Amino acid sequence: MLWESYTFTCRFNSTQKAAQPCYKVHASIDDEFHSPRNIALGLHWRYRQVVEHGFSNNLKEFINAGVTAYAVGCTAEGLRRELLSVRDSDLELDIGLSAGYISGLKSKLTSEEIEECILWLSIIFITILCTPQPTVVRWSSVLPVSADTQLQWRGFCALIANAYYIRGMAWFSVKTLQLEQVAVLGYAEEPAIVADRMRLVFATLEAISPQWPRS
Length: 215
Hints:
alpha+beta; four-stranded antiparallel beta sheet
């Protein structure tokens, strides 16, 4: 197994009628990828783990889930719609690991965190597309990200991928990446944000196409 089992419990608010059904998913790696909603919730949970507890111990889990979502044919927009559907359904999320750890997340999904989670996922998908040879087999001919998203982030990811494959680099100039953003987006993000996005690309490349012996 790549990941531990975890539990998603979604409860309707107490103001709703008791007769209404409850959406509840107990997911493991064996059944998480049986439905787009489970995939979307799994990615969101891992995204929150990275944001709340740091990159070092959690980024790999998010990337692994993102790569698997790519392989099974998911699209960033489709998973975004699933999260927005949960957001709009008046469900309260109680998400935690079945191993006994409960994260304490009992809140509505917010539009801001959904968009950022899907952007992270899109960067993973585009990074996979930037590899010089196919590294992940995809079970779908549908493009994983929209043309607009590719236009916005393909150059950013390609700069880092070229540095990784051609020059053997594990870090890249934040300033150069900011200039790329200005050229494509019309603005540059804060250096710390750009550095985090760069780290996501490098970590994805290392996960799907390692260039150095692993310790």
